[in-house]
Amino acid sequence: RRPGEPPLIKGWLPYFGMTMKFQKDPLGFIRTLQKQYGDIFTVLLGGKYITFILDPFQYQLLAKYHKKLSFQRLTQKLSVKVFSIKIVENYEDLIHELHGAYQLLQGKSLDIILEDMLQNIKQMFELQLLKTTNWNTAQMLTFCCSIVFEITFTTIYGKVPAGERKKFISELRDNILKFDNKFPYLMSDIPIELLQDVKSIREKLIKCMTPEKLAKIPGTSEIVQKRQDILEKYYGLKDLDIGAHHFALLWASIANTIPVMFWAMYYVLRHPEAVDALHNEIDHLLQSTGQKKGSGISIHLTREQLDSLVCLESIIFEALRLSSYSSTIRFVEEDFILSSDTGDCCLRKGDLVAIFPPAIHGDPEVFESPEEFRFDRFMEDGKKKTTFYKRGKKLKFYLIPFGFGANKCPGRFLAVMEIKLLLLVLLTYFDLELIENKSIKLKYTRSFFGIQHPNSDILFRYKPKS
């Protein structure tokens, strides 16, 4: 190492370094290194030298040195390799404009999306799930894939005409899930040609999402229309180039929402006290707004009412805390000295810097018994709990499943809103029970990227309430 650089842990395997140890138990591995080397160290993982910053009071250094720690370079590489996006002239201006369009996923625009989403849930559930009075058995992850995909697609991209809907939605869903299954490999240095039929699946998905195809689907959301206008400005009428962007947005809209929905459902059904608390909270809201549960899905909710359900939000945040490995990663643009309260360290051009959420999410000093699911962890005296401490100091960053700063996940409000709505409708209108009594663990295949999937599916059953 050069003078002033953090300790380097690279193992004995060239290129791969410590990858195998990291993949086996990411948090345990990082914890061991932290005890040995402190809060800043560099690890060789799959050909990349990654410097971890583990002290939550130093996370803001990434914002402080944003000109030397690039987010853009990483996302550009990912866009090309994973989604086949073409880099055009003035690409930075394009990204800036697309980023501006994300304001349509928050504030007043989210109220319009909520209305639309509630209608889509009502239509889908009444057609597909409320028809029978008997118990239906399903695999929970498969069930979550099905409902999240259809609700997300119809809310963002529009309503496929009834005659074609079932075939179109199921084919698109199956292809995007096959693609998503290979996503961790696409993020590595493995050429796409070696990943079986991933390239042809990607081509199919892009063709499904071209402006020509989407024009046939009525009810497109404002965000998609706005992005379409921006993309035409930069790409002209190149259908496949624009289709690649639409495909990337669709993937981003479901890739993490599906596993979070699974974990929230799984944890709730394993904890009867969480089910009781949720039923009480939902019943209280419906009574206070003068709503009754009819035979169909008749409830109507504003965003303020949805946000007032603190127990529901706490459950989703707790599911995110236990499953999110969405690391904040930056590319070091030049050799420089990172100055912090705890001292200076030299970073090397071409390396990566990472903030690893499980380190704070699993810290027993911040969260008591962090390995346990506690439905009320983010509640206090019936209100949202937002104060957590480490070393006696209040933390600004204690729950970071969406990254932080200017590059926070732009769809975070939409994702949380969708999971809230789906859980609320399922618990209000259905009896739900786990059939298998088995403990599901995280499957560590996405250790830097998003929500970890379960290591196996689990059977549950549901039936409409009488």
TrEMBL record:
Pathway recorded for this protein: Lipid metabolism; bile acid biosynthesis
Ranges in a coiled coil: none
Residues the entry annotates as binding heme: C409
Top-tier EC class: oxidoreductase
Presence of the UniProt keyword Transport in the record: no
Protein's cellular compartments: Endoplasmic reticulum membrane; Microsome membrane
Alphabetized GO MF terms: 25-hydroxycholesterol 7-alpha-hydroxylase activity; heme binding; iron ion binding; oxysterol 7-alpha-hydroxylase activity
List of residues binding substrate: K81, N256
Domain of life, per lineage: Eukaryota
Record's GO cellular component terms: endoplasmic reticulum membrane
Keyword terms, alphabetized: Cholesterol metabolism, Endoplasmic reticulum, Heme, Iron, Lipid metabolism, Membrane, Metal-binding, Microsome, Monooxygenase, Oxidoreductase, Steroid metabolism, Sterol metabolism
EC number annotated for this UniProt entry: 1.14.14.29
Cofactor: heme
GO biological process: bile acid biosynthetic process; cholesterol homeostasis; cholesterol metabolic process
Family statement: Belongs to the cytochrome P450 family.
PANTHER family recorded: CYTOCHROME P450 7B1 (PTHR24304:SF0), CYTOCHROME P450 FAMILY 7 (PTHR24304)
Protein name, as recorded: 25/26-hydroxycholesterol 7alpha-hydroxylase
